[in-house]
Amino acid sequence: MATNIDDFLRMRAAALNLLSQRSEVLASNLANADTPNYKAKDIDFKSILGQMQQGGDVGGTLALETTDANQIGGAASASNPDLLYRIPTQPSIDGNTVDAQTEKAAFMDNALHYEATLRFIDGSIKTLRSAIQGN
Fold first, then answer.
1. Where on the phi/psi map is residue 96: left (φ > 0), alpha (ψ -120 to 50), or beta?
2. Angle formed by the axes of helices 5-31 and 45-53, to 10°?
3. Mean per-residue pLDDT for 86-105?
4. 52, 58 in Cβ contact below 8 A?
5. What's the predicted TM-score (pTM) here?
6. Alpha carbons 33 and 37: distance in angstroms, whole number
């Protein structure tokens, strides 16, 4: 649970970053649906976000160094999360493991999660602004 606004927003920003990267990976899978020997990839979003919530180091996470006690510390988000190969339900003869229907469904699910996260952040900021203004 976030203890302050910075932690709350940092986690949501990291989630948006991971969802954006996952969209790129899924789009790449769809673009290579007809490429021989292309292996479909994906990001294990739940695992990475769980590690980040526990304060763990996730592939490429860098702690920010502060030079003054008044500076805000933190960590940069995972820039290169580990990509996992998707296990094909019906492998093709040419070695391509992309299932267009599975990839489209995953892409739409990811887009919905991205939109929901944006709306959640927007609602939270509106609530905080309302509380600060005394409305």
1. beta
2. 160
3. 90
4. yes
5. 0.72
6. 10
